Amino acid sequence: MVYFDVFNGDADGMCALHQLRLVEPRDTATLVTGVKRDIDLLARVPCVPGARVTVLDVSLARNRDALMRLLEGGVQVEYFDHHGAGDVPRHPGLQSHIASEADVCTSMLVDRHVGARHRSWAVVGAFGDNMDAAARQLAGLLDLKPAQVEALRELGDCLNYNAYGTSVADLFMPPEQLYRRMHLYRDPWRFIAEEPVLATIRDGRAQDLELARQTRPYARCSAGVVYLLPDAPWSRRVRGAWGNLLAQESPGLAHALLTPDGEGAYVVSVRAPLRDLRDADRLCTAFPPGGGRPAAAGIDQLPPDRLVDFVSAFEQMFGKGAVV
C-alpha cells in the first residue's frame, strides 16, 4: 500500500498528525509539508490508484481541484481540517472530518477521532494555533499543574513559530525534519526535556520579537493597527508569532502584519480582535489569493498598488462593532 501524509508545517498540523500516527502508525508514508503558508500541498501528491492520502490542517477550498483529481483517479483520502471548506465534495473515496468553528483546531478534531489517547499533544497544537482558551479548557481535562500547562503553551508557540517564513530556508528546521524528531516522543514532556532544537527555536524567537517591537505602526485606525515589516528573514519568521502576541496584548483590536515577499508584493497576516473573533477571513478573501478562518487569515500576495485599499478595507471590516 502507498501512503501519503499531507500536513501544514505548523504546530497544529504536526500535532494533529503526531496524535494520529501514534494510534494508527504508517511509518512508510511519504510526508508532504512546507512552511505555514504553503497551503497548495495536494498538488504535490501523485495520483496512484489505490493509494491512501491523509490530509491535516490544509484548506480544502484551496486544494479542491487537486483533491478531485486524486479522488477521480482512485485515491482514498481522509481529510482533517478546521478552515472554511465551502461545499465538501461527496465522494465514496473521501472521509472528511471538517469543522470551521472559531474555537476548534485540527489537533482537537484528531483528539476526538482517536478518543483523547494523546490529548496533551492536542493541547500543544491548540496553544500553537493561538487558541488559548480552548487549549486551557482541554488541558483542564488532564488535571495538569499550572507549570505543566505553561510548558505545553511554550512548546506549542515554539513549534508554530518554526513554520513561519516565505520558504523553508527562513526556518530554523524544515517541518518534515521537526515532525520526525517530535514523533520519537510519545509525550511532550520528554520532548521538552530532551530535544535540543527546542532551545534553538526559543532563543531565535525571542531575538526576532525584540526586533519586531522596534517597528513603528504603518497605520492606526479605530479598529486596529497595521504594521509594515522590512524584507528580512527575521520579519518573515516573526509575523505570525508577533501577530498572536499583539492580539493577546490588545484583545479589543485587530492587527495586520505585512512583509515583502521578495517578488514585489506583500504577504499579509491578519488577526481579528480576541474579544470579537470575526471577519479576518472575509477581509482576506476580498484580496485573492487570500483566505483563512474568522479569527486569523492571510493574503499570499498583495500588490503594492492595493496597499491603500487593504488598509481601508481593514478599517471598514473591523470598525463596525469593534471593541476598543
Protein described:
The chain is an alpha/beta fold and 324 residues long. It has two domains: 3-200, inorganic pyrophosphatase (n-terminal core); 216-319, Diaminopimelate Epimerase, Chain A, domain 1, CATH 3.10.310. Helices cover 42% and strands 17% of the residues. The chain contains twelve helices and eleven strands. The chain has helices at residues 11-23, 60-72, 106-113, 119-128, 132-140, 146-161, 175-182, 188-194, 197-213, 233-249, 280-285, 307-319; strands spanning 3-7, 30-32, 52-56, 76-81, 94-98, 219-220, 224-228, 254-260, 266-271, 290-292, 296-302. Strands 6-7-8-9-11-10 form a six-stranded mixed beta sheet, sandwiched between helices. Strands 2-1-3-4-5 form a five-stranded parallel beta sheet. Helix 3 runs antiparallel to helix 4, helix 4 crosses helix 6 (146-161) and helix 9 crosses helix 10. The longest helix has 17 residues, at 197-213. The termini are far apart. The model has no long low-confidence stretch (mean pLDDT 92).
